[in-house]
Amino acid sequence: MELLLAAVVIAAVIFAGSNGFHDAALTVGNAVVGRAMRPGWALSLAVIFNFIGALLGEGIAIVVANQIVLFSGSTELILTTLLIAFVAATTWSLFTYYLALPVSSTHCLIGGLLGAGVVFGFSVNTGEAMDSVVWPLVLSPILGFILAWVLTLILSKSLASTPPKPLFRGARMADSVLTAALSLVHGVQDAQKIAALVMVAILAVDTQQHDVLSVVDISWPVRLLIAAALALGTGLSGWRVVQTLSVRMVRLDPFKSSIADGAATILMYTAALIMRVPVSLTFVLGSSILGTQYAGRKGHARARYFVPMFAVWLLTIPAAALLAVVLGWIVKASVGL
What we know:
Number of domains: 1
Number of helices: 12
């Protein structure tokens, strides 16, 4: 059982690293494209604040660990389910990175968890999953678009008489601060979900009860491990997805870049600290970028890039779930679980 637990922890660490690798550059991408920060400095800032954010809070963790799949019964089944969920989530995340398409690590993990949970016979709290996970994940990009659109309209009219040079200088200064804020909340959002499922695995091994497992807090060793993995992935982060979102999909200037980051920051902190629900930074930020393009002056959004983004947004949960189902059936057939 200890080997299976170790496999779950290793899979969680790899997923956390791939999360940082895939997503973290997005927190600094607009600032880099808008020349608010140099790439090296921006990534260094993201590493630090992702690590700090990963150590903060646990409200989202409790939702993911206790209110979606109800884990009870066999320790071996619980650990196997978690392992398959992490493997499926990591596989889909890396596949979409190869395609240079933005993806939500939250969607990946929730999809993998639901698919593996169903295969191994665990109860799924459908109502809670819809209210606490699915609806926030679906609605948050829509709100990101609307908020960025409104902010762009208001600020464009308010600052219409400001010459471009001082306007862009101020926008770059603001974007530097927003980059740190986005990196911090990225750590809060994404690390908590992973750490919560590691705690489920540890509880499954440490307790002999067959009732539904309930995570009440996250131990500091688990927090530090996942935070370090997320930070390491951030430091190694690639720029393929940033090129899609911040360069190919739209034409951003420093002003619109800072507005998109500001809108995403507002929504991400509201979700993490007030509502305590998981949302996707990738799609909140992507939709906020699009929102800046359709307010005021005509934007330059390119459909051949944002249409695939929305397709991935809709497909990730079912795709990760299907992958987990396939892996689950292979494991069941192989070892007779």
